[in-house]
Amino acid sequence: MKTFSKMLAMVLVAFGMFSAANADEKVIFADDFTKVRWGHSGGLAKPELVAGPKEGQKAMKLVFDINGKTSSYPQVQRYLNPKYPFPENTKVIVEFDVKIERVNGTLNLAVAGVNFGDFVSTKMPFLDDDKWTNVKIEISPRKGKTNVSLDRISINADVRKVAKGTKVNFLLANMKVYPAAK
Questions:
Q1: Model confidence, pTM
Q2: Which domains, from first to last, does the chain contain?
Q3: pLDDT digit string (tens) for 33-59?
């Protein structure tokens, strides 16, 4: 399938305290998508659960309908209450599997940034459509702060260059958040 650049939308997290297989990855929040727990904007309908990247796994699927307006930023997000303060002077890893399926139209999505907690922003990598991709985003404490304060995670796409009426399936699976190994 055609590779499209700079992209997309989605968000993370449900409660859970787990320990990962790797001792350096003490998972603070994780979501295996047995339920849908996200708010969204730009979606045609409520998210649904579908098959994930591996047998037995679940994924969340949301259909976005791009309206082509400058003010439109399709997004999925999850608020956490209370917000979780990670250890001081520790970077945080947000990891998930994501897949984009083009329904119609032409995709040319530009990265708007990914916001975590108090508006720390980073960029998503380029993605191939119709292919599951594992994404790891490293978050550093905000300038002037000593730790990452996680009260929400949201991923959004700048769709100003996307043709009006383009529909995109966005799928997300295997989300987890953990302190980076020092």
A1: 0.71
A2: 3-179 (2.60.120.260)
A3: 777 777 777 666 678 899 999 999 999
